[in-house]
Design goal:
The protein is mainly alpha-helical and about 210 residues long. It has a single domain, classed as Up-down Bundle (Methane Monooxygenase Hydroxylase, Chain G, domain 1), CATH 1.20.58.220. It has helices spanning about 5-30, 40-65, 75-100, 105-130, 140-165, 170-205. Helix 1 (about 5-30) runs parallel beside helix 3. The radius of gyration is 18 Å and the shape is globular.
């Protein structure tokens, strides 16, 4: 890789680090949930999301000016967008708690959030290997592990939605949690899309 190519990989590493911090903060918010502090939680979560937006803008500006890129610029742009989606959806989880005026957190929500931390941690490891993907001995296994975490999230989503339906009493609360768990599932999918995007880039360039 040329010296100037380092920017792209550093940008991705910084974005995944932000995603991991945002996911960890989500767990913190859910474990010690206080509905009266939700607006403060939203403000702090938005700092992570806004920082990721800045990284995405920096990527866009660099790609627009670059004559040569380490891999296709379209792939770099797509990966940047996929990473941005992860941060957007992490923020959206808290936004939905606020919108639906949630007073008490479901235990499964905390479990789901912890799975998202695992997913983001794997993305950090993947991005740490990405620059030297042609020589990496572990990036493929990390991508597979990322897919495994998403499958675990799918199973949790299915069982959680089933239990939610079985014990449904308050329709509005039940519908609210349907939307919230949909958001968790979308975030797990977004993390998998990042790892799959990396896998696709590797296949095209080896």
């Amino acid at each position: 890789m040329a010296k100037g190519d380092r920017f792209y990989f550093e940008n991705f590493e910084e974005c995944t680090a932000l995603a991991k911090k945002a996911a960890a903060y989500l767990v913190e918010c859910l474990e010690d949930y206080d509905a009266s502090k939700i607006e403060k939680m939203l403000e702090e979560m938005h700092v992570f999301e806004h920082s990721a937006d800045i990284k995405k803008h920096e990527m866009n500006e660099t790609l627009a000016k670059a004559f040569v890129t380490p891999v296709d610029r379209e792939d770099l742009d797509m990966l940047s967008q996929q990473l941005d989606n992860v941060l957007d959806i992490l923020e959206e989880v808290l936004q939905k708690l606020y919108i639906y005026d949630i007073k008490k957190i479901e235990p499964a929500a905390i479990e789901y959030a912890k799975n998202l931390v695992r997913a983001c941690d794997l993305l950090c490891e993947i991005m740490g290997e990405f620059e030297n993907f042609k020589k990496s001995k572990k990036i493929y296994s990390l991508i597979v592990e990322s897919n495994d975490v998403e499958e675990e999230c799918d199973k949790l989503y299915l069982s959680t939605m089933h239990e939610l339906t079985k014990r449904s009493s308050d329709v509005l609360t039940t519908l609210s949690w349907y939307k919230i768990y949909d958001c968790f599932e979308a975030c797990a999918d977004a993390c998998e899309h990042v790892s799959e995007c990396v896998g696709s880039i590797i296949m095209k360039n080896t």
